What does this fold into?
Amino acid sequence: MGVEMPSCHLKQIVTAIPMAHAVVLAERWFRALSDDVSVFTSLYRWLVETRHVAPAGLHDRTYAGAGAARRLLAAERARIARRTKLRGAALDRAVNLSDLNAGPQTLFAERRLLGDALVVVPDDDGEVQRVIREMLQDDSDAQTRKARSIASGADFGQWLASNAGRDDPVGDLADDMLRDPGFPRSARHYQEVSAYLLRNRAPHGALAALGDAWKEYAERYPARVARATWCARCELEIEDLRAGILAWTGRGGFEVRHAACAGETPEYELDLQQLLVDDPALNRVAAFGERCGAPPWAIAELQERLRLWGFSQRAGRRQPKVYFIQAGPSGPIKIGYSGGPVERRLAALQTGHPETLCVLATMDGDRFTEAELHRRFHGYRLSGEWFKPEPDLMDLIAVLQQKP
Ligand SMILES: [Zn+2]
It folds into this structure.
């Protein structure tokens, strides 16, 4: 099997280089082309005259996504055919020559570019080279991580062994494991290991260390951790969530068990299926706990147990976003930054705004990205963070809206 060349969408370039110009070529742009010069020459001229792009080295600074490259090439082929009456292979050769000499770049950081648009990067080679270096570095980091994950083994035991000598309880647990041939190294459930430690009368510290170790392991290799629940009564796995309940007995706390396994009559109970499916943040669990009147520590303990059983991804740190919000169907556009959910920001802005607001696009970015975009579009500034919906701003948004 051949190795496929990695690809990258144009929106990754505009995200990494906010000062880049995004350009979407409409059908009418192609219809207005002159037959006298190559399509690429027309393109560069148009970029300078209409989009006020600095003219130096445009051939090297203009990147075309596969869609735009295909359309430009088709237009150039048609133009050459009209002018030369060449056909077939001769026409292909002529187009290839023209493309090689003048067409925009279709690779960025050794990646095939996706998207139906163009991006013109600033005439500042240092910045662009830095971004390219970082992308290439990311690729090699990803390969290193992959190699390391293979090297660190497919199971919990091998991962834990790689932490031997660490100066904390997880390191101690790793040392204990290496001295213990019976340790269930290939465990895919926290429960298997904790049951083993309990059977062998491991000290409480070892169980706490296992909890820390398992969470770290699960966070790093989520695919290797199986989700499962165990019945507090019969101690067997509850293989089908529909057969399990979460019960709150007040006195006895929370209990996960088979519905069919007898236990104390619960004050409240809920099907596990209803509780755990599609709830990685364990919000429904917390809401249920509150409804039961359980104390916060009991809810926290329950959530902790469910985390160890693989029922939540740790809520990752949220990637801050730069958003583009439009007032009305063709009104001004607010370019802002939000560390929290953009929807919440939208709702806050909508309060007291006469027009209906709409999030057109978002991109990864922080307050520096926001500041760069404000600088980039300062000519269109209406007031504060609101800008006129001029074509190059709308083209940037169109690129961000394209599917990867
Ligand atoms: Zn049971």
